[in-house]
C-alpha cells in the first residue's frame, strides 16, 4: 500500500520532537523572563513541517545511543554535539563581538517576537538580543538533543511527576562530590588559560562584560554603537580593537568547550546513575515511562 501517512512508530517520534521543541521554546521564554524580557514561545511553520516529514528518523551514521535518558534531565552536549560547539567557538565565539549572523531571515515575519523587538528602543533591543544569545547558549549546553530524553514519555503520564523526578536527578548530580570536584577542575583549567570564571555560564558573562565596558567607552568618546553589526562595532570601537576583542572572544569560547569536557563527562555518568536510582525508588513511574 502506498501513501504519505507516517508509520505509527515514526509518528510517535515526530510528536515527541514537536513536544521537545515546544519545551525548548517554553524554557527559552522563561530564561528571557528571568532577564527581564518578553519572549513568546514560537515554532516556525517550516520547522514543524520538517519534523513531521516521514524521513530522517534514523540516527546519524556511527552515533551510539549512550546519551539518552528516560527522564527530561537537563543534559550537556554529547561528544558529537561538542565537536559542533568547538567549531562554532572557533568561528563565532559567543556571537557577542562577532556579529556575522545578526540579520534575521526575511521569511521570519510570522514570528511574534519580531514585533516585540520592534516596539523597543535601540538600547533595549540590543540588550534583548544579548539576552537571547545568552539563553541560546545556556539551553544549548543543557539539551541532550534527544527527543526521548525531553518529551518522549507516553501519553497519560503526569508531566509534573516526570519533571519532579528529573529535578531530583539534577539535584543529586550537582550535590555529588564527583561533580563538585569536576567543577573545581573546570575552574582550574579556565584559570590556567587566563579566564578565572566560576562555571561555564560565567565564561559568556566574562565576554559580555567586556562588551558592556567597550560600549560605555565608545559612548563616552562620542562614538556610540549605532547598529549591532561588525561594521557598526568597528565604527565605534575601531577595527584593530574589534579584531583583538574577537580573537579574545574566540579564545574564551574555545577554552570553555575544552575545559568543560571532563565536567560534562562526569555529568553524563552521574545522571545515568541517579536516574536509575530515582526510577528504582518509584517503580510505578518507571513502568509508566518504559525502558
Architecture overview:
The chain has 291 residues and is mostly helical. The protein has one domain (8-50, 75-289). The chain contains twelve helices and no strands. Helix 10 (230-237) packs across helix 11. It is globular. The protein starts with 7 loop residues before the first helix and ends with a helix. The relative contact order is 0.15.
Question: Which properties best describe this structure?
Answer:
mainly alpha, 12 helices, single chain, 291 residues
Task: Summarize the topology.
Blueprint: H1 8-34, H2 45-51, H3 79-92, H4 112-118, H5 122-142, H6 148-151, H7 159-175, H8 177-192, H9 200-220, H10 230-237, H11 239-281, H12 283-289
The chain-level structural class is mainly alpha
Q: Which band does the percent of strand residues land in? A: under 5%
DSSP helical segment count:
12
Question: Percent helix among the residues?
Answer: 55-70%
Shape: globular
Number of distinct beta strands = 0
Question: Segments where pLDDT lies below 50 for 5+ residues?
Answer: 1-15, 49-65, 101-109, 144-153
Series of secondary-structure elements, N-terminal to C-terminal: HHHHHHHHHHHH
